[in-house]
Amino acid sequence: MIVEAVELHRIAMPLVRPFETSFGVQHSRDVLLVHVRSDAGDGWGECVAMADPFYSAEYVDGAQQIIERYLAPRILGRQITAAGFADAVHGVVGHRMAKAAVEAALLDAELRAAGASLASALGGVRQRVECGVSVGIAPDLDTLLAEVDGYLAEGYRRIKLKIKPGWDVDPVARVRDLVGDGFPLQVDANTAYTLDDLAQLARLDAFGLLLIEQPFVEEDIASHVALAAAIDTPVCLDESILDARIAADAIDRGATSVVNIKAGRVGGYLEAVRVHDVARSRGVPVWCGGMLETGIGRAANVALASLPGFTLPGDTSASSRYFAEDITEPFELDDGTLHVPDRPGIGVTVRTDLVADFASRPVVTVSA
Ligand code: OSB
Ligand code: MG
Predict the structure, then answer these.
(1) Which atom of ligand 1 has the smallest separation from the CA of 238?
(2) Beta-carbon neighbours within 5 Å of ion ligand 2
(3) Are residues 166 and 44 in the same domain?
């Protein structure tokens, strides 16, 4: 296809409740949407970069600038495919979330034109995916338990608690009591610990957790190897896994025995499939992470989660987990699962009237 224009939409989506992690509190989601217009038709992609560079180095203003200045000019006005996109932008180092958003829009345009769903194109094998929910740090334990209780009532099949030093063993113990033995429960530290905290992290072994996600900084594979050898709870990397080669290396070194896959973090859905493949060939289960996506990114995540190696419930929660109103048809839980879209492309319809209503900046159009 020939891309004629890349439109960048910025929207501010209010969250139904504040979301607190070890790196900060969010009250609203500042989202960058990429709308590609080509001779074959249109496509949409969502950039998962956050407003601030606290989860990783990327942030949404930077991602927008990278797309405007470096990525869009490399694909405008010439023959391009989603599969050829990574090569087309190879000279731009890093900025995986920005690249992933553009690649997703190209995939959507290409697959809508071909009449194929993203799930089928990526190799999906399931019509529904099991859903977990990520629960933020709460002001107090009672508030946390009430929130978890609400998610259990909605049917979520797995709970993930955000933890940080000072908010770990007590909340985990209380939530384990609430959900009962055997209910899938896991924790995510978003890099808040160091190896000095080993004894405290080892206390989590008492609660039969599915995994502990990213206790240490992104670059520190060695400390994760040491922790994994010292505790019973499986270690799962998120922030550290930037591509399939790193995933293979981290698995082979014993740093991670489960992998959180986020397409944005690894530079796109095509690389996400390669991460899935290297993990699967090593017998390592994967699950689909989330970044508070709107229906656009959520649709693509659910498609990814339908691949065979995604054997653990993902952070693929319903639209209502974060938003009162979504910019696509809402994703709703059905017995703790979401249906994988089977219509062409990402398989959802973007409500452009709502995208306009939620706009926080003027639309930027980059054209050839
Ligand atoms: O570490 O998985 C994470 C949200 C923003 C940034 C990082 C993370 C998260 C979540 C929420 O845990 C996932 C979701 O529900 O979308
Ligand atoms: Mg995480």
Answers:
(1) 1
(2) 188, 213, 238
(3) no
Report the CATH number that the domain containing residue 95 is assigned in CATH: 3.30.390.10
Residues with catalytic roles: 162, 262
The rounded Å distance from CA 77 to ligand 1 centre is 36
Ligand closest to CA 315: 1
Whether residue 347 is contained in a domain is answered as no
Please say whether the dihedral angle defined by the alpha carbons of residues 62, 67, 68 and 74, taken in this order, is positive or negative. Answer: positive
Q: How many domains does the chain have?
A: 2
Same domain, yes or no, for 138 and 171?
yes
- Is 126 in the same domain as 227? yes
Q: Would you call 120 exposed, middle or buried from its count of C-beta atoms within 10 A (0-12, 13-18, 19+)?
A: middle
Q: For residue 312, what are the domain limits?
A: 120-339
Residue 214 CA, ligand 2 centroid: distance in Å: 6
Q: Do 190 and 104 share a domain, yes or no? A: no
> Is 132 found in the same domain as 48?
no
Please tell me the residue having the least CA distance from ligand 1 atom 12.
134
Residues forming a β-bridge with 31: 11
Cβ proximity of 270 and 81 under 8 Å:
no
**Ligand nearest to the backbone CA of 292:** 1
pLDDT in tens, the chain (368 residues): 999 999 999 999 999 999 999 999 999 999 999 999 999 999 999 999 999 999 999 999 999 999 999 999 999 999 999 999 999 999 999 999 999 999 999 999 999 999 999 999 999 999 999 999 999 999 999 999 999 999 999 999 999 999 999 999 999 999 999 999 999 999 999 999 999 999 999 999 999 999 999 999 999 999 999 999 999 999 999 999 999 999 999 999 999 999 999 999 999 999 999 999 999 999 999 999 999 999 999 999 999 999 999 999 999 999 999 999 999 999 999 999 999 999 999 999 999 999 999 999 999 999 98
Residue 125 and residue 220 in one domain: yes
- Residues near 167 by beta carbon (within 8 Å), at least 6 away in sequence: 137
The per-type count for the chain, helices as H runs and strands as E runs, is 14, 13
